[in-house]
Design goal:
Layout: H1 7-16, E1 29-30, H2 33-42, E2 50-54, H3 60-68, E3 71-75, H4 79-88, E4 96-99, E5 115-119, H5 125-135, E6 141-147, H6 148-155, H7 165-173, E7 174-182, E8 187-188, E9 195-202, H8 205-209, H9 214-224, H10 232-236, H11 243-249, H12 263-274
Parallel strand pairs: 2-3, 2-5, 3-4, 5-6
Antiparallel strand pairs: 1-8, 6-9, 7-9
Bound molecules: S-adenosylmethionine.
């Protein structure tokens, strides 16, 4: 683990572990050391942080994070990679613990974890980010490497094609910023698209306290976007027969579609439907 990673060492380690990178598990490993260090540095990890890394793979980013953090916890679904990480980080300082589990199934994480830094499996990036922020209130700031389109989806503004359920659900908990673009050429196997590093920062408790319950908000958002091209009235009428009155109360036309509503308008609409 002491020598910097290269494509040759990465391929050698994968072969030794008999891991053929799986598309389903989003196994695209970073092998360029300068990129790894850049991510760890942009994530602003420091010696007070207990960092969570989801999908550590062969531990390329983990090593850089461990150099900066107070503690590091890794969650890896692939048991061959988890076993390899156990041997790599045995007796490591600072201590690194490895949880061999599907992150989406995890109901608890150590209470002292305050930050997450991860190169996420691309097909699961959005569910993982949402689960992390919905389930674990202790996570304040995070940095994630995701496919460029997913980053754009999470940062999208109303009236655009990418604006939708993930944008709004994450906004309930946190704000998102694009930090850096990362070329597809630093991964093995090389994906078809470039990646983006995003920073997610949890909203303050005073902001959260003013919001209606998340379950009601999430249900309204899910149903509003059920048929994206339909008017919001038609999507919501089966659940909220008085939807047109609520929209009128908000000064909105009954012709609007879900993608026309801002986050604040979804919040206001949730409060109105919840009041009946
Ligand atoms: N962090 C490594 C790197 O940057 O080279 C690997 C990143 S790779 C994009 C994603 C990793 O997530 C893989 O190691 C994969 O096995 C793991 N993974 C996929 N689904 C997972 C899940 N549901 N929970 C935990 N780990 C998962």
């Amino acid at each position: 683990m002491s020598e910097p990673l290269s494509l040759a060492t990465l391929k050698y380690q994968l072969e030794k572990l008999q891991v053929r990178p799986s598309k389903k598990r989003g196994q695209n490993f970073i092998y360029v050391q300068t990129t790894i260090d850049k991510i760890a540095s942009l994530a602003e990890v420091n010696s007070i942080d207990h960092v969570l890394e989801i999908g550590p793979g062969l531990g390329a980013l983990s090593r850089s994070l461990a150099e900066r953090a107070r503690l590091l916890t890794l969650v890896e679904i692939d048991s061959r990679l988890a076993a390899y990480l156990e041997s790599v980080f045995e007796n490591y300082q600072p201590p690194v613990s490895i949880i061999n589990q599907d992150f989406l199934e995890l109901k608890q994480i150590p209470a002292s974890i305050n930050k997450c830094v991860s190169n996420l499996p691309y097909n699961l990036a959005v569910p993982i980010i949402l689960t992390l922020y919905e389930r674990f209130a202790q996570i304040e700031e995070s940095c994630f490497l995701v496919q460029r389109e997913q980053a754009e989806r999470l940062c999208a503004v109303p009236n655009t094609k990418l604006y939708g359920i993930p944008t709004l659900k994450l906004q309930y908990f946190a704000s998102v910023k694009i930090v850096s673009q990362i070329s597809r050429n630093v991964f093995y196997p090389r994906p078809h698209v470039d990646s983006t590093l995003i920073r997610v920062t949890r909203n303050s408790t005073s902001v959260l306290k003013k919001l209606p319950p998340y379950d009601q908000f999430a249900h309204l958002v899910d149903q509003s976007f059920k048929h994206r091209r339909k008017k919001i009235v038609n999507n919501l009428k089966p659940y909220y027969p008085e939807i047109e009155t609520f929209l009128a109360e908000m000064g909105l036309s009954s012709d609007i579609r879900a993608e026309n509503l801002t986050f604040s308008q979804f919040i206001e609409l949730t409060s109105l439907v919840a009041s009946i």
